[in-house]
Specification:
Layout: E1 5-10, E2 15-19, E3 24-27, E4 35-40, E5 44-49, E6 54-58, E7 66-78, E8 82-84, E9 95-96, E10 116-118, E11 123-124, E12 127-128, E13 131-132, E14 139-141, E15 158-169, E16 175-177, E17 191-197, E18 210-215, E19 220-223, E20 236-239, E21 245-250, E22 256-260, E23 265-269, E24 280-284, E25 293-298, E26 303-307, E27 311-316, E28 327-340, E29 346-350, E30 356-360, E31 371-374, E32 378-379, H1 388-393, H2 414-421, H3 429-433, H4 442-453, E33 482-484, H5 493-497, E34 524-528, H6 551-559, H7 562-584, E35 597-608, E36 616-627, E37 633-643, E38 646-653, E39 659-664, E40 669-674, H8 676-681, E41 685-689, H9 692-709, E42 721-725, E43 730-733, E44 753-756, E45 762-765, E46 771-774, E47 780-783, E48 803-820, E49 824-826, E50 837-838, E51 858-860, E52 865-866, E53 880-882, E54 899-914, E55 916-919, E56 924-929, E57 943-947, E58 952-956, E59 967-971, E60 977-982, E61 988-992, E62 997-1001, E63 1012-1016, E64 1024-1029, E65 1034-1038, E66 1043-1047, E67 1058-1063, E68 1066-1071, E69 1077-1085, E70 1090-1099, E71 1110-1116, ...
Parallel strand pairs: 3-32
Antiparallel strand pairs: 1-2, 1-34, 2-3, 4-5, 5-6, 6-16, 7-8, 7-9, 7-15, 10-15, 11-15, 12-13, 14-15, 17-18, 18-19, 19-20, 21-22, 22-23, 23-24, 25-26, 26-27, 27-28, 28-29, 28-33, 29-30, 30-31, 35-36, 35-41, 36-37, 37-38, 39-40, 40-41, 42-43, 42-72, 43-44, 45-46, 46-47, 47-55, 48-49, 48-50, ...
Length: 1182
């Protein structure tokens, strides 16, 4: 779980943050301002200070906020002087934007506010479409405007070049005042409220935000162009409203509510990706006519409101299709305000005690939650106060579960109340807005104190005890505290105002601040959870305080580190082992009573039959495990089945099994079992269980038995080979010394793979045991040194270093339409067309109703939405056009386009466990670790990464003892990158988003980020997408699956000279520290079937032949990523011998298999598949 922040403002205007992993409120670093309201998201927080001005607080990050300014210099050819600055009257400006319509000189582009600074001076961009231009960066064309090329031709009459300059946002971790460049006559009034949201409206990675504000005159303003590269926005736009507005709330999607002075609520409709400001307003009546809505807060599918009598209400039936909802439900409790955060979690501030409360039990299936729970975390600067525990405990934990006496009441004393009522300045601005400015009668105050003192049957002093003539007592709050809307009228707001403290809302005026005492409970005025991530698996420390222990005992308990605990466990285990050996020494002369023991487990499963027609048949399975005299264990798996009414069986020795893979789908709880023979056939043994738990029990038992048969236990070695399947499962293999032997290498289909808990998309390792991974949601994870997790329990998993892990991915379906001359585009296609709702291939029907998550482990966390972030672009509605199915799609309609499609996406979430810890807070797209360093070197391990926005990062402080590192160092680039690789001797190569390659110069331990990028031209007419660097070799992969080798790399010229084609049909490549080359092939043919995603090893790689000779392939059927960058295991030197026939066929001309089972090899340099007998239905396909 990422460490996110809850923001709050106390009654003195000071802003505090509370981390989800913390226990203390921390004062905002820039504390010289006093605030009334704040509204937060993950990356920033907006606030209104007491001067009614708007400020933004951008959280610090290792990745800077950069914005590129660009302008073009245009020239025309003159017969006398050649290209010059003199243009024709009809030409564009000499200095202009890309369109040529706007005059844009270098000195006209200035910083938008004092919060920005220039990184460097103007310079010419010499990159054009992924290819370097000639000196000067000029591109040529026949006229303005036209298609430009980097080569000058005889008819090139005009030319232009692009000048770029970067500016950096410098005001981070401080409150920056929002500048206003509007017309002074149209400047907005001072603001009274604001709200930010809308970051989920669009799927673009620019991080756009919607900032809404309410002025003192009741007008609504919208801040234009607020996004990640421009956190301040550009200007304010006035939004027309049907009345005067008091308060506004914006959700992360398209939900926007506001409250009117009359007590009604307004709902903004028509908000979408192309119109974030919406189009119209709808009115929603309050729950009770006598008490209008005072405060409202919205989330994704929820709306919470507080009426003028401080009652809390929940709006039923709210969603993107019905933003107004259906009806109100009253919730038990009285709040001053509520706030809905991420995942529709809810926070509130109590009306009487000013405590921040958290709504427990909020889940996607129960959005209203169950009960309120007080957050009793203290402030950071009060840690040293020993008496704070008792005062915090007096705030209580649960409503209605405890009884509190009069001495524990948090209400002010009569003396404090009388002194407040004598000061007219104590009436808060919020109360004035509610029409409640009358002083409170002393008798009412005394009556309330007396009622609060009667704690019998009261819900922890949060709500006053009911009067004798009031409604019946409320139900206990241990259950779901929902109330249906009552038709009987409740006391009016005016009557309630007379029994309310004068300072119950708003802030104390300046000059009356008094510091909290050691035992004082913080009093809060506002809370914002828009940047706080809390889910059902989050463990919060906000509700408990250490008490009952002396200071010395607490210090002792905190001083015991996990490393010391692990050392003690190891020491105790060694002592017990030595004692056992001593006790058994006296019985060594006795004969063995039992030579071997046999243990059998039986059960009923289903087996995918080998014969046609392939179908699931019921079988009996028996696992027979026996232990020899030397303590070694071996196992045999028997599968008994009926064939033509005859009982038969097959058996598998588990010491021959190479991998066990769970096959997760909605139909069966199945897993696949591979042996070398089954790998050649591409047809594994597939078994299915009746329940998910039974399947995992068998899978864990068989995996453990396979590891015991091969005597492999515990954590993987530092030289292990790591891989990830297309389902996200993680596997490791211990490399043999003969794996990279030059003469007789071990076939890689005999490698044994075992599963490690967790779920990743990418994994990267090095020979020092440092392993990093990236999830589907771009979250970075670091390996903790454990093993097991997930479905591995007990002895199959380590007792420490196992943590909870979550991942989020998108499921895509396509809506297809064909053009009809009468009705236009319609869902009625031709008989030969694909399904109108299908997958990307169009061969499988996938509708919104029948599309399920990838497996039972995944749960939906969003609704279906149109995905605009797709290759080729889309129009305003998300459609892509083409001449026919299937074809090349583009985002605009032409006269020849008769079909169109658009992609729908839905997010799902997986929660599991494994030996992984999250590395926050930057999301990553790619990561690379230097393969190995010199033994005993004290230099940190080089680790480079690409963020999900394309920024290049260098991790500092990575070592064996601290694999997570300490901080990120940003490396400047002129464009977004997609891949990076750091090889031996700190060779850093990267691939940009336009497909061009770059080499980073002067990278060393003393200069970890290097000094400059060298542009490397990509292969002709190809765009690269991945690069991998070994000791002396550099391999790259393009978008068409072609594998390229960089020729001419020397220590004096590390950029190399040219690209040499090696193979095609490649999905991923990994080059190891010994220059060994491993790839994931797209399609591999076996004797029985074809599999997608196969691990292949390049054989014959030698210093004199770095490209190798052929391919040897191993496990396949669903593998998606591989990392051999930790394998430094060298084969022992041996005398060359004549190779055997079978091994020779693997390392020379590898030809396509003919179905014989033993000769299904590739071409010498190509991984090309042509005719295949049958697609494997048993393999773990992608």
């Amino acid at each position: 779980m990422p460490n996110s922040l809850l923001w709050a403002v106390d009654i003195f205007g000071r802003v505090y943050t509370l981390a989800t992993a913390g226990q203390y409120w921390e004062l905002c670093k820039d504390a010289h301002l006093e605030f009334k309201r704040v509204s937060a998201v993950k990356q920033c927080c907006w606030g209104i200070a007491c001067d009614n001005q708007v400020y933004v607080y951008v959280c610090s990050s290792d990745v800077p906020i950069r914005h590129r300014e660009e302008t073009y210099e245009n020239q025309r050819w003159n017969p006398v002087g050649g290209f010059c600055e003199k243009l024709m009257p009809s030409d564009r400006w000499q200095w202009s934007d890309v369109s040529g319509l706007k005059h844009q000189q270098l000195d006209s582009l200035v910083l938008p506010s004092p919060h920005w600074e220039w990184e460097s001076d103007w310079y010419v961009d010499e990159n054009f479409g992924g290819e370097p231009t000639e000196k000067g960066g000029w591109t040529y064309a026949m006229d303005f405007p036209a298609t430009y090329t980097r080569d000058k031709k005889w008819n090139s009459c005009v030319r232009r070049r692009k000048w770029i300059r970067y500016r950096r946002y410098k005001s981070r971790d401080t409150w920056a005042k929002i500048p206003s460049h509007d017309d002074p006559k149209q400047l907005p009034d001072p603001f009274n409220d604001l709200s930010i949201g809308g970051w989920e409206i669009t799927d673009e990675p620019v991080g756009r935000l919607s900032v809404w504000a309410v002025s003192l005159q009741g007008k609504i303003w919208y801040r234009e162009d607020v996004c990640h590269p421009n956190p301040e926005g550009s200007s304010w736009s006035l939004i027309e409203t049907p009345g005067e507005v008091v308060q506004i709330s914006c959700g992360p999607y398209d939900l926007l509510w506001a409250t009117l002075w009359e007590g009604q609520a307004m709902v903004r409709e028509g908000i979408d990706r192309n119109n974030p400001k919406g189009s119209s307003w709808s009115i929603v009546e309050p729950p009770v006519p006598e008490n209008g809505i005072m405060h409202v807060s919205v989330g994704v599918n929820v709306v919470w409101a507080v009426t003028k009598d401080r009652k809390v209400w929940f709006r039923r039936g709210v969603n993107s299709h019905n933003p107004c909802g259906t009806s109100w439900i009253e919730m038990v409790g009285e709040m001053m305000m509520v706030n809905v955060g991420l995942n529709d979690q809810v926070w509130g501030i109590g009306c009487d005690d000013r405590t921040v409360y958290f709504r427990q039990g909020v889940t996607p299936s129960e959005l209203s939650g169950k009960t309120w729970k007080a957050i009793i975390a203290n402030r950071e600067n009060d840690r040293s106060h020993t008496g704070s525990s008792s005062s915090l405990l007096s705030a209580g934990c649960f409503f209605g579960d405890e009884v509190r006496g009069s001495g524990d009441s948090l209400a002010p004393s009569d003396t404090e109340t009388s002194s407040e009522t004598e000061r007219p300045g104590l009436v808060s601005e919020y109360e004035i807005s509610l029409g409640n400015s009358r002083p409170r009668p002393e008798s009412s105050r005394e009556e309330e104190v007396a009622l609060a003192g009667d704690g019998v049957g009261q819900a922890q002093g949060f709500a006053p005890a009911p009067r004798p003539d009031s409604a019946p007592a409320e139900l206990p709050w241990t259950n779901i505290d929902l109330k249906e809307t009552q038709k009987t009228s409740s006391p009016s707001a005016a009557c309630y105002a007379e029994t309310t403290s004068l300072s119950s809302l708003g802030l104390f005026p300046v000059g009356l601040e008094e510091g909290y005492g050691a035992d004082d409970h913080p009093l809060w005025a506002w809370v914002s959870g828009g940047g706080c991530t809390v889910d059902t698996h989050t463990v919060l420390k906000w509700f408990t305080v250490q008490s009952g222990l002396s200071t010395s005992m607490q210090t002792l308990s905190l001083s015991i580190t996990p490393a010391q605990t692990a050392a003690w466990r190891k020491q105790i285990f060694q002592q017990l082992t030595e004692r056992t050996k001593r006790e058994l020494e006296n019985f060594r002369h006795y004969e063995q009573a039992v030579e071997q023991s046999v243990w059998v487990k039986t059960g009923t499963l289903q087996w995918w039959a080998d014969w046609k027609p392939h179908k699931w048949i019921d079988v009996r399975v028996a696992l027979e495990q026996f232990t020899g005299n030397d303590g070694t264990r071996d196992s045999i798996l028997f599968i008994y089945y009926m064939f033509h009414e005859e009982k038969k069986y097959i058996h598998i020795f588990l010491n021959e099994v190479t991998v066990l893979v769970p096959v997760l789908n909605e139909a069966k709880h199945s897993f696949a079992l591979y042996t070398p023979e089954k790998t050649k056939q591409r047809w594994p043994i597939r078994l299915a269980a009746a329940t998910e738990q039974e399947m995992y029990d068998w899978l864990a038992l068989l995996s453990t038995s396979c590891s015991e048969s091969r005597r492999i236990q515990g954590r993987p070695s530092p030289q292990a080979i790591w891989s990830v399947t297309c389902k996200g499962d993680i596997f490791v293999s211990e490399p043999s010394v003969d794996l990279e032997a030059p003469m007789h290498p071990m076939p890689c289909d005999q490698m044994f793979w075992r599963q490690i808990g967790g779920h990743l998309r990418v994994v990267e390792c090095n020979s020092h045991g440092v392993v990093w991974g990236i999830g589907y949601d771009h979250t970075a994870w670091v390996y903790t040194g454990g093993y097991g997790g997930g479905f591995f329990q007990g002895l199959a998993s380590s007792t420490s270093n196992i943590y909870m892990q979550s991942d989020v991915k998108c499921v895509y379906i396509y809506e297809n339409q064909r053009w009809n001359p009468v009705t236009g585009y319609t869902s009625r296609g031709l008989p030969t067309d694909r399904y109108m709702w299908s997958d990307v291939t169009g061969l499988q029907e996938c509708t919104k109703a029948n599309t399920k998550p990838p497996s039972l482990h995944w749960t939906w966390v969003s609704d279906w939405y149109i995905d605009f972030n797709i290759s080729g672009g889309t129009d305003r509605e998300g459609w892509q056009y083409a001449s026919d199915f299937p074809s090349s799609y583009h985002g605009y309609k032409t006269m020849k386009d008769f079909v169109r499609r658009r992609r729908w996406a839905r997010k799902c979430k997986l929660v599991t466990s494994g030996p992984w810890l999250e590395v926050a807070p930057i999301s990553l797209w790619d990561v690379s670790i230097i393969p190995g360093c010199e033994e005993g070197s004290k230099d940190s391990i080089a680790l480079w990464a690409i963020s999900d926005k394309g920024d290049v990062l260098c991790r500092l402080g990575v070592s064996e003892l601290n694999p997570a590192g300490s901080s990120w160092l940003h490396v400047g680039t002129d464009q977004p990158f997609i891949s990076v690789s750091v090889g031996a001797f700190y060779q850093v190569w990267a691939v940009a988003r336009d497909g061009s390659a770059f080499y980073r110069g002067s990278v060393s331990p003393k200069q970890p980020a290097g000094d400059c990028w060298y542009h490397i031209p990509s292969p002709p007419k190809q765009k690269l997408k991945q690069v991998s660097v070994g000791q002396t070799s550099v391999y790259a992969l393009d978008e068409n699956g072609n594998l390229w080798f960089r020729q001419g790399i020397t220590p004096s010229y590390p950029q190399g000279s040219s690209w040499d084609h090696v193979s095609n049909n490649v999905r991923k490549v990994s080059v190891g520290p010994l220059d060994q080359v491993w790839v994931i092939a797209n399609k591999v043919q076996g004797s029985h079937s074809l599999s997608c995603g196969t691990v292949c090893h390049r054989t014959g790689v030698q210093p004199r032949e770095p490209k190798g000779q052929g391919w040897d392939y191993g496990i396949g059927g669903g593998w998606d990523h591989l990392s051999v960058r930790a394998n430094t295991t060298k084969a022992p030197k041996s005398v060359p011998q004549e190779p055997e026939e079978d091994n020779f066929s693997r390392t020379t001309d590898l030809e396509e298999g003919d179905g014989g089972g033993e000769s299904n090899f590739f071409n010498k340099t190509m991984l090309v598949m042509n005719a295949v007998p049958e697609v494997n239905g048993s393999a773990v396909t992608c």
